[in-house]
Amino acid sequence: MDRFTRKELKHAPAPRPDGSALAETPWRRDERRERFANPYFRIFEDQAWNGRAGRHFDYGIIAFRNRAVGILPLEPDGRVWLVGQHRYAVDEFTWELPMGGVPLEANLLEGAQRELREETGLTAAHWELLLPEVQLSNSVTDEVGTVLLARELTPGAMAPEASEELWVITVPWQEAAWAALDGRITDSLTVAGLLALAARAEDFGLAPLAGGAGGGPG
């Protein structure tokens, strides 16, 4: 809970004198039923008691079998690689980082290397953790994601899955970052990864984010 060294408390429903989580949370799971399952996730219907409201709620939870990993491939000239595809759930074409799911028990770096090669044909000699963990939609799912920075890139042959129809582009990183800020890039892990790059730009020999939205992915 207490993750900030300089904070100003404006409201708190209960005291947390030591900054730790409450011994008793507002929620208690009393019953769980599995309603759907596939190789990627399970959907549960919970009977969840809320002590503040004093009643049960029907709570739907999507529990993922994989950890999401996004890869931010960065060229020496500051261009980044993005992948475009039509996403069924939102019925939209979106620009995203190369990404995929890595089984929870598997090696995250090996999974990231596989996803990067499949979606772009790239291999990378240098890998670095850019963003350790992003909770992607924590009101309804336990899914978390990680973003890795990939550099010293070597091109190769793509190997997308049979269901994937991919467009692959490179774009100056600042234009991609502005696209994440102005709504042209909407995938949460991609937005988070690009803003993490912007926050640490000088660590990677890049100029600070400047200018306006301008161009970027179209």
What would you note in describing this structure?
- The chain is α+β, with helices and mostly antiparallel strands and 218 residues long.
- It folds into two domains: 27-64, no CATH class; 66-204, Nucleoside Triphosphate Pyrophosphohydrolase (Alpha-Beta Complex), CATH 3.90.79.
- The protein has helices at 108-120, 173-182, 188-199, and strands at 27-37, 41-50, 55-64, 66-73, 79-87, 92-96, 99-103, 123-135, 144-154, 167-172.
- The strands form three sheets. Strands 7-4-9-8 form a four-stranded mixed β-sheet, with helices on both faces. A three-stranded antiparallel β-sheet has the order 1-2-3, with no helix packed on it.
- Helix 2 (173-182) crosses helix 3.
- It starts with 26 loop residues before the first strand and ends in a 19-residue tail after the last helix.
- The model has no long low-confidence stretch (mean pLDDT 90).
Structure summary:
With 218 residues, the protein is α+β, with helices and mostly antiparallel strands. It has helices spanning 108-120, 173-182, 188-199; strands at residues 27-37, 41-50, 55-64, 66-73, 79-87, 92-96, 99-103, 123-135, 144-154, 167-172.
**Shape category:** globular
Radius of gyration: 20 Å
The total beta strand count reads: 10
Gap between N and C termini, in Å?
40 Å
Main β-sheet, spatial strand arrangement: 7-4-9-8
What does the largest sheet look like? 4 strands, mixed
Order of helices and strands: EEEEEEEHEEEHH
Beta percentage is: 35-45%
Overall pLDDT level: 90
Query: What is the architecture of the largest domain at the second tier of CATH?
Result: Alpha-Beta Complex
The CATH superfamily of the largest domain turns out to be Nucleoside Triphosphate Pyrophosphohydrolase
CATH classification, class level of the largest domain: Alpha Beta
Which structural class do you get from the secondary structure elements? Answer: alpha+beta
